[in-house]
User: Which sequence fits this backbone?
């Protein structure tokens, strides 16, 4: 009879220990940050828009003064659905200080919580007979949380 009591106590302790480990595991998993579906959609939008701007010649055209910032802003707005804010910056990659030159910025109210998603595109423009590397950065966010 004493053996059965010790086995039962040991079995109860094992189950209790397993339950504690299970709840710790669940708590750890629930705190892990998983990218939201909305953020993934924004990432795809940003990459696609930069690819299209590069393919259509808007990025090089801006550097060569064929297009202005308003043209880039209007083109970007035409590709985005309602409710997404954006900021487009272009950097001359040979710029020593590494500051982005702001090209277009859609001014939209940032209400509630939001998270920006960025995409980058490298492109080369012929500037006065010299090929110069540039970097385009497009930031997107959902407006209104």
Assistant:
């Amino acid at each position: 009879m004493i053996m059965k009591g010790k086995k039962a106590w040991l079995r109860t302790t094992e189950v209790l220990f397993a339950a504690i480990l299970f709840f710790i595991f669940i708590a750890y998993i629930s705190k892990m940050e998983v990218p939201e579906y909305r953020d993934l959609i924004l990432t795809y939008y940003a990459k696609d828009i930069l690819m299209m701007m590069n393919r259509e010649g808007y990025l090089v055209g801006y550097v060569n003064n064929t297009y202005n910032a308003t043209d880039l802003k209007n083109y970007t707005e035409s590709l985005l659905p309602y409710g997404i804010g954006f900021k487009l910056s272009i950097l001359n990659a040979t710029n020593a200080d590494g500051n982005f030159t702001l090209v277009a910025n859609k001014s939209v109210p940032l209400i509630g919580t939001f998270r920006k998603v960025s995409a980058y595109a490298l492109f080369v423009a012929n500037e006065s007979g010299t090929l110069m590397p540039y970097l385009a950065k497009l930031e997107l966010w959902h407006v209104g949380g």
About this structure: The helical segments are 2-31, 37-56, 58-63, 69-79. The chain has four helices and four strands. The chain has two domains: 1-32, 37-142. The first helix runs from residue 2 to 31.
